[in-house]
Amino acid sequence: xxxxxxxxxxxxxxxxxxxxxxxxxxxxxxxxxxxxxxxxxxxxxxxxxxxxxxxxxxxxxxxxxxxxxxxxxxxxxxxxxxxxxxxxxxxxxxxxxxxxxxxxxxxxxxxxxxxxxxxxxxxxxxxxxxxxxxxxxxxxxxxxxxxxxxxxxxxxxxxxxxxxxxxxxxxxxxxxxxxxxxxxxxxxxxxxxxxxxxxxxxxxxxxxxxxxxxxxxxxxxxxxxxxxxxxxxxxxxxxxxxxxxxxxxxxxxxxxxxxxxxxxxxxxxxxxxxxxxxxxxxxxxxxxxxxxxxxxxxxxxxxxxxxxxxxxxxxxxxxxxxxxxxxxxxxxxxxxxxxxxxxxxxxxxxxxxxxxxxxxxxxxxxxxxxxxx
Length: 373
Known about the structure:
Blueprint: H1 12-26, E1 32-36, E2 45-48, E3 51-56, H2 63-81, E4 87-90, H3 99-105, E5 109-113, H4 115-122, H5 128-137, E6 140-143, H6 146-155, E7 161-163, E8 187-190, H7 200-213, E9 218-222, H8 228-237, E10 244-248, H9 255-260, E11 264-267, H10 276-283, E12 288-291, E13 305-308, H11 313-324, H12 327-344, H13 347-372
Parallel strand pairs: 1-3, 4-5, 5-6, 6-7, 8-9, 8-11, 9-10, 11-12, 12-13
Antiparallel strand pairs: 2-3
Helix pairs in contact: 1-13, 7-11, 10-12
């Protein structure tokens, strides 16, 4: 398995990949993860919940750094691949380091396409042939949303590509007590890293409109990023600094307690493949209001929350105010959200499908080897 970021990094991709690896280990599989030494002090090699984690140098958190990291991982990948049955690249950038191993050892390569980074690059003429080559190199392709699947197939009509939505650990993310003090005042939690694509600016701009209708609302933003200070200044300029608290980044293990503290979770993204944070909130029994963009409409509807127009504070405020105006309806939506995740986004479903595809590919590879013999 290879993924550029892995815990203790926090994010939807990191959560998804870690949870998948952990559950594969619990099923009796041996999993080795190649990832980046993305923070000072991280060990080059460690074992996390049975996952053998190998961390490789990465000079910077930007495209040039990602490319340098990918090149640096190729020798390690080739060494670890000698006794591997199968390679799995989590994100398009993780596929090229597997190619030498794929050619030498003739092992299947599975590719998972996540995040808006893929969608952004798929629009650029210079990237399209690169992404086409990456997709064509895989024996099977998983995508985190139907939008990503359609874009991938427009680049290369892969015969074995399918949508496999993210899953949630519904035992860890479940209804219960929150970490923030209980309150009768409506509390909105925004679990977003503070990057422009996540649209938190538009939620902050919506807060004066929300407060105009509900002067008892408070908001809590859980996440860090380059926009942290700018968004704090914006809250002060809009005179809502006393209503919006910025808590910074929290470890993934702490997130259930923060999500349970909410009456409503808001995901104001401008681009989104499929939000793990939204599913985690739903698993905690909390309704979600989210942007009508990317894969979010595939998991959120009026039965579990609401959708609004991305980048429009007025639309965000309208959705939030309407949901908070009906506490009984909000509670019903929370219950329905929890049920929807348990039934449709379970870890068992996710791991079962991965193992099914893995075994199909290994069986086919074995049959081809026998025919050649």
